[in-house]
Every structure is written in structure tokens, then in C-alpha cells.
From TrEMBL:
UniProt record similarity statement: Belongs to the universal ribosomal protein uL29 family.
InterPro entries xref list: Ribosomal_protein_uL29, Ribosomal_uL29, Ribosomal_uL29_CS, Ribosomal_uL29_sf
UniProt-listed SUPFAM superfamilies: Ribosomal protein L29 (L29p)
Family matches, as CDD domains: Ribosomal_L29_HIP
Keywords noted in UniProt: Ribonucleoprotein, Ribosomal protein
Protein encoded by which gene: rpmC
Keyword Membrane applies: no
Protein known as: Large ribosomal subunit protein uL29
Length: 78
């Protein structure tokens, strides 16, 4: 998963992409937690970063659900 995803960047993605990014982030979080439990984790800061990415994705998805922010579809003239 790309590091440093901002909410603005996530708002430009479609719903399917957000779901995929969420799945990837959750898998990464699981792997990081497993590494932490076995003492193999080198970067503890990455745990925090991945948790925040997950929260950002959930926030953008919820904003769309409530109609706070909508995705503007590109119109194709042709």
C-alpha cells in the first residue's frame, strides 16, 4: 500500500478502489501486528501509520454514504 495517502487523494478514488485499498491496509496491519508479537517488527511507527490510513479510508467511505462528499464523475465528450 502506498505510504502517506491523504484524504484528498482518497476522495478521488472510486468505491471499488477504496475497498481494495482498505483490504490491503488491513492485511498489512495484520502482518505488522504478527511481526510485533513475534519480536520481528523493525518499525513500530508503521503500525500507527497503517491504522491512520485505515481510518482515513473509512472516513471517506462514510462521507460518501452520508452524502457529505460526492465523487464527481468525469464526463467524456466524444
Amino acid at each position: 500500500m502506498a505510504q502517506g495517502l491523504t484524504a484528498g487523494e482518497l476522495r478521488l478514488e472510486d468505491q471499488d478502489t477504496l475497498v481494495q485499498k482498505l483490504k490491503e491496509a488491513k492485511e498489512e496491519l495484520f502482518n505488522l501486528r504478527f511481526q510485533a508479537a513475534t519480536g520481528q517488527l523493525e518499525s513500530h511507527g508503521r503500525l500507527r501509520a497503517v491504522r491512520r490510513e485505515i481510518a482515513r479510508i473509512y472516513t471517506v467511505m462514510r462521507e460518501r454514504e452520508l452524502g457529505i462528499v460526492t465523487v464527481e464523475k468525469e464526463s467524456s465528450d466524444g
